[in-house]
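The pair is quoted verbatim below.
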Amino acid sequence: MPGPLHGIKVVDLTTVIAGPYATQTLGDMGADILKVEPPGGDIMRAPGPARSPGMGAAFLNCNRNKRSITLDVKREQDLAKLRALIAEADIFVHNMRMGAARRSGLDPETLLARHPRLIYCAIVGFGQDGPYRDRPAYDDVIQAAAGWAALAERAGEVPRYAPTVVADKTTALFAVGAINAALYHREVSGEGQAIEVPMFEAMVSFLAIEHLGGRSFAPPLGPSGYSRALSPHRRPYRTADGFIAVMPYTGAHWRAFFRAAGRDDWADEPALGEAAARAAMIDILYERLADCLTARRTAEWVAMLEEADVPCSTINSFENLLDHPHLKATGFFETVEHPSEGRLVGTRPPVRFSKTPCSIDKQAPGRDPANI
């Protein structure tokens, strides 16, 4: 069976990560994605490593299941071609600033007036009803603006970015959810609509779940922040020969861990039986955890804690993950043949549909002028 979005046509005028990852996800679900690139190609083609110019790893990893053409939307002739493509599409996605979209006649008002069934999705830096609407936005800027970078400072470090483009990829998933909801609305009403997915607001919403904390109440019941996540003692812990992740969460977990570590005195503390009491002493508990773990080797702890049903994991690198027994069993990493780049290693779509499975039908588009 084809994927759940089989038959849906998407015109993808996005670059870098947020837009391309969103449209790749739609493509994995069966949508027909036409990627429109500027002369010279998507800027994300450049960063390596790469076997050939313009075919960097990150580009390959967020542009599968797409066809590609080159259009210079600053030229009226190419802009007319783009408008003709949009007229035949179900979905139009872009990550231009809205001022540029309006100057090109690619704003939602213009396009929806002509194509009332169109689903128009704009991935922008900041919501368009605020004073920051015209500001440029990239992942690092949004991590700083949305409060992510400052969380490290709350945990006793200097402000820092996550070592992944978390704002781009999180925003991409917001866009996928919104587009699928709009498709459902169109199915029952016959109407298209405009969707705005602002990176800043998406990331503030993402972080506010736990970190709005005491400021969730009016008047506040305390400062912002989630104490467990911000504890300076929450980290991968040293063992006798390396590191391990251990996450006792319930009272039963904590008791099982301390008994496995030979600390029945800590396991018998009444406070472990109450969630609020555990939260109040979380720094102490994490310190005790760290003290205990240095006594044994990582493999010993993993075996003991799995037996005790305490959540834990080794600290995996991507080199480890490529040979991970669970990922091997599920066939998650696949070796494929790219038309121009040879053998590549990639991931299967992580979401499973029982009746309309995702699939990978095309590798990322190459730089052959006949292709783009």
